[in-house]
Amino acid sequence: AQRVTQPEKLLSVFKGAPVELKCNYSYSGSPELFWYVQYSRQRLQLLLRHISRESIKGFTADLNKGETSFHLKKPFAQEEDSAMYYCALFSGGYNKLIFGAGTRLAVHP
Amino acid sequence: DTEVTQTPKHLVMGMTNKKSLKCEQHMGHRAMYWYKQKAKKPPELMFVYSYEKLSINESVPSRFSPECPNSSLLNLHLHALQPEDSALYLCASAKSGEETQYFGPGTRLLVL
Lengths: 109, 112
Prior knowledge:
By secondary structure, chain A is mainly β. Helix content of chain A is 0%, strand content 46%.
């Protein structure tokens, strides 16, 4: 079965602390993975795509095929990082994005 | 123009009304999507259009009827909705299926 698992509903950290939002996937082929972010009252927007290997807003994510993971990391969280984060897998077989349940990141001052 | 736009922003309708949601993009994208998003949940795919043809219908009730009049426009016609259909309806577009999807701001629908 093709599935994306984000085990944490809520991740609460203090400003300046490191952040890791977990994402595990189940997919038989070569995965196309994305992180989308939804800030309060804003549209869902792409944060990272694994093939681009970019660092956006200080966030990075590395695909680990052995552990079937695509965790999102940032060394020093900022209050403006508070948002809902969704990991998503593109299923070529079904031609659609499969979203994880999402993790709400709350960064406290 | 690098955004997906959606109108209206908000919509309140009764269960006997007929209304339509509109989505537009001018990025030359050939894949367009309708999603439904309930509060604190991920988007749920409803329909996919590829090159203006319906390619995926995720077993959506017939009271939702999509339409793609041209490559830039996507409509969602609503009729006889139920209160449980109240949600944020998102439109998205992509160059093609496996490419990054760009989302609109959504239409917040309330069915009374």
